[in-house]
Amino acid sequence: MQVVATAGHVDHGKSTLVRALTGMEPDRLAEERRRGLTIELGYAWTTLPSGERLAFVDVPGHERFLGTMLAGVGPVPAVMFVVAADEGWMPQSQEHLVALEALGVRHGLLAVTRADLADAAPVVEEAGARLAAAGLTGVEALTVSGHTGQGLGALRQALDRLVSRLPAPDPEAPVRLWIDRVFSVRGSGTVVTGTLPAGRVTVGDELALGGGLARVRALECLKEPVTSVTGVARVAVNLRGGAPERGRALFTPGAWTMTDLADVRLSPVGGTGEESVLPGRLTAHIGSAAVVCAVRPLGDGLVRLRLAGPLPLHVGDVLLLRDPGRATGQGVGGEGAEVRVLAGASVLDVRPPALRRRGAARLRAAELAGAGQAGTGRAGTVPGAGELLRTHRLLRGADLLAMGCVPEGEPVCGDWYADPAHWSWLGERLAETVARHAAGRPLEPGMPVEAARNALGLPDRRLVAALVRPPLAVTGGRIVSGPPPGLPEPVARAVSRLRAELSARPFLAPEAGRLAELGLGPRELAAAVRAGMLLRIAEGIVLLPGADTAAARLLARLPQPFTVSQARQALDTSRRVAVPLLEHLDRGGLTERLDGVNRRCPVTATR
Length: 607
Ligand SMILES: Nc1nc2c(ncn2[C@@H]2O[C@H](COP(=O)(O)OP(=O)(O)OP(=O)(O)O)[C@@H](O)[C@H]2O)c(=O)[nH]1
Ligand SMILES: [Mg+2]
What we know:
Blueprint: E1 2-7, H1 14-22, H2 30-35, E2 42-47, E3 53-58, H3 66-73, E4 78-84, H4 91-103, E5 107-113, H5 121-133, E6 140-143, H6 152-165, E7 176-178, E8 181-185, E9 189-196, E10 200-202, E11 206-209, E12 212-221, E13 224-226, E14 228-230, E15 233-240, E16 249-251, E17 257-268, E18 281-286, E19 289-299, E20 302-313, E21 318-322, E22 341-349, H7 360-368, H8 385-392, E23 394-396, H9 397-403, E24 416-418, H10 420-440, E25 447-448, H11 449-456, H12 461-467, E26 472-475, E27 478-481, H13 489-504, H14 512-517, H15 522-530, E28 535-538, E29 541-543, H16 547-556, E30 562-563, H17 564-571, H18 575-587, E31 592-593, E32 598-600
The chain binds guanosine-5'-triphosphate and magnesium ion (MG).
């Protein structure tokens, strides 16, 4: 199945043509029939000569219903543009065309109707040129009459050619079904309808809806019950749960980013080739949604939109921006009606960083300058995972998917992906941070992983572990300056263990038995001391570097003078260590021996 929307000035014969092509009535409301005017979206379908089924979303042409027109066209891949032969190009013809251009609709055909009333040729020429200028290239022009049936056979064949050219949507794509109608069916509950552009919906599916979840109880496609449907299709979904209303979307949970903030690139519309200065408040349209938004210019055609409510968005989505305040006041089809559609906006980021500091906006613009360059969404290029990582630096694979990008390459750990340049920068920062920590706290055997995570501002501890590479190593939840050059791997490991043990009781030097267990003989200890990983106090007595000055600081707090036994207690160690440690301190002038029993700390040593 394919879906085509109508477009064109009020009263130009859109609904009449849809009626003639399908035999169905697109104007369902009594008021529409009484006034001869489409107010709400109309739905009708037919089978084309090829056997392909085609559904129409028939939109209103009246300027007052532009919002409804946009809701109908939003999710639809192609358009049947209708112009009356007897009236020619009119203001809403222009406004609808600008809207299609902004939304990036590139496929369609031109039906110049009411050809029984006037010569269609000049209108075919003018309208054809305008459509081509707006990016609807390769559009076939047909001359028809909804009243006499003239040209309808050729139109059906042209519609067949049009739909056969449309790109085939991915049935595995995540679902986002913009709701364009909600109603209740007695005995079944709530039913919503919409145009499913891609992906698959199946009975029993649980889909996100307005912050909650809704279960698909039943499905219909063109009034026929189905158990599963893939886009493109018009679907009616019987729901349990959720809070459905027009403008909301049913979507695959986790596959879209619910956001009220988006950085976008503007694309000028209406053939001016220039960027108009946007007002500070606009309405953003996507799918069937219309949301008021505040506009913050970043520079270079880039703006940040703050939406009044969150929308499920992907990078690469295209929004239409219009000025809701600018009413034409000219009446239907009045001359000089102002163009209210101001720009298309292609979404570059759905999780943009806060702009706090002065000049942050300009920096952000520079950062986004090359992103997803040129063109808008449906036809243009979209920023890829690599580009998103360049600005976000670190993202989970799940976040990338929710942003609309398939992760590329290998994760750095778990589900985390990193920008390669940023990752190596982080590696360098970690080495620096660990070195600074070691210099400031020589008694500690290394920097706790959590402290390093904090220092680097990383969101996950596993990232710290993944950044550790030689000569850094992780033992016992700490990052240690691992084997310095020349220290063999097993010795380095044993020394790290020893340092970890010493960090718990810094003055209790390991006994000979423990050293032997760790395989640390005199040669190994000497190498570790040379590498600055241990401090030699005496033969077979090693502590962490800096333990001596730390001991002196503790001893200075004792009542002076003090005995070996008092020092031993204060340092929480044994006589075996206390005696040589005090002698080591004596040699360094950190303690002073008064007699056979007493020592004191010189006043200067405690400063
Ligand atoms: N003579 C003639 N009249 C037509 C033709 N098509 C439509 N009309 C008449 O034009 C008027 C408007 O037709 P609609 O089909 O309602 O126009 P529309 O474009 O759907 O109008 P809106 O939905 O309100 O924008 C009606 O009175 C139709 O009978 C045609 O091919 N020939
Ligand atoms: Mg109509």
